[in-house]
Write a structure and sequence with these properties.
Strand content: 5-15%
CATH architecture of the largest domain: Up-down Bundle
Order of helices and strands: HHHHHEEEEEEEEHEEHHHHH
Structural class: alpha+beta
Largest sheet: 8 strands, mixed
Shape: globular
CATH superfamily of the largest domain: Butyryl-CoA Dehydrogenase, subunit A, domain 3
CATH topology of the largest domain: Butyryl-CoA Dehydrogenase, subunit A, domain 3
Number of helices: 11
Helix content: 40-55%
Length: 380
């Protein structure tokens, strides 16, 4: 595995690190307090042109890939994991998937809008009853009569759709009605399509700012160009997108671990007990060493998955392993960071306290640890 970053990645990393620390970081506490994104943050994201390098050259970008995205997400994840998830969603769904599989005539313009955060593209797939069993989803689609223009009708609902109230289009999965064995299709459904209903945002333990809300499709008719990829092959497309999202979530988890580690390290360096700095106590030194091993191991898992994806090798197992190891490490490292900081780590306003709550979501979203362990076991 090549661990040497390209010169352009190093340049971008310096830019992203500065922006994450000095512009996004200071606003992240406000996002957590309000459980919502807000105009000032979205304005910073738009003006920063953070995602422009991920556009292809013909759209004014640099064609940056998953390695660059992993570097960006780790830096932003150190202070604002919820913004990092938004970025992952915009690049993987709003740029990469949109340009690769969308049939919409405006897909290039939409990709530019996604890069500037003027159009948000969340994934609408999860249903409460189905959970991780995609073959049991109740949202269905049916092709309109043969003498129509090739349009489809979608009906059903999704339980948790990130930034649903701000979305301009949903990447939605629907099972083919009456088809056995089950098959599905995916569609880019514009929010303003008649029949789309968005519920109230749900409050969550962590990741405040996801603004996850239910979305209902009441006999929603979409044109043929709303179809993503090939009709009936939605499961394959969804899995391809999820593999990239799991790599991205792994990178965010690395950032969470590193952010909590850094705060705890600074605290124990300054805090004295019995006349000595806390970081001189061997019991803490060993636990910091264990945390450092977890962080470095997580980063290597993510980078290996990125490398396999770049070489177009099957990435199912590597993406799953990266997400399992990195997210579970993030939970362990943030737990230790709060412990090392004592009462200060338990107070609201502490970065470690917020990252501790945020980390817990990552073991659930985009494939639970248990589901991914099953996936890994089938390929051993």
């Amino acid at each position: 595995m090549n661990l040497e970053l390209e010169s352009r990645d190093k340049e971008l990393l310096d830019i992203w690190r500065d922006l994450a620390k000095n512009r996004i970081g200071p606003l992240s506490q406000k996002v957590d307090q309000n459980a919502s994104l807000f105009d000032e943050l979205l304005d910073v994201l738009e003006k920063s042109e953070l995602l422009k390098p991920f556009l292809p050259a013909e759209l004014g970008g640099e064609g940056c890939g998953l390695m660059s995205l992993a570097l960006l997400l780790e830096e932003v994840g150190k202070t604002s994991p919820v913004v990092a998830i938004l970025m992952a969603q915009q690049v993987i769904v709003g740029i990469r998937a949109l340009l690769r599989v969308s049939n919409h005539p405006q897909r290039q313009e939409w990709a530019r809008e996604a890069a500037s955060f003027r159009m948000l593209f969340p994934i609408a797939a999860t249903e409460s009853a189905a959970g991780s069993d995609l073959h049991s989803i109740e949202t269905v689609c049916s092709a309109c009569p043969a003498d129509s223009d090739g349009s489809f009708t979608i009906r059903g609902g999704k339980s948790y759709v990130n930034q649903a109230g701000r979305a301009r289009a949903f990447l939605t999965m629907a099972r083919l009605e009456g088809k056995e064995p089950p098959s599905a299709s995916m569609f880019f459904v514009p929010r303003d399509t008649p029949g789309v209903r968005i519920g109230d945002a749900l409050l969550t333990m962590g990741m405040a700012g996801l603004e996850a809300a239910p979305v209902e499709f009441r006999e929603v008719m979409v044109s043929a160009d709303a179809l993503a990829g090939v009709h009936g092959f939605g499961y394959d497309l969804y899995n391809q997108i999820m593999h990239e999202m799991r790599i991205a979530i792994g990178a965010i988890a690395v950032g969470i671990s590193q952010g909590a580690f850094d705060e705890a390290a600074q605290h124990t360096k300054k805090k004295k007990q019995q006349g000595k700095s806390l970081n001189t106590f061997q019991s803490l030194q060993w636990r910091f060493s264990d945390a450092a091993v977890r962080i470095d191991g997580s980063r290597m898992h993510v980078w290996r998955a990125v490398e396999q994806a770049a070489e177009k090798n099957p990435v199912y197992t590597f993406a799953a392993m990266a997400k399992i190891f990195a997210t579970e490490s993030a939970c362990a490292v943030t737990d230790f960071a709060v412990q090392a900081m004592g009462s200060q780590g338990y107070l609201r306003g502490s970065l470690s306290e917020r990252l501790f709550r945020d980390a817990r979501f990552l073991k659930i979203g985009f494939g639970t640890s248990e589901t991914l362990r099953n996936l890994v076991s089938t390929r051993l």
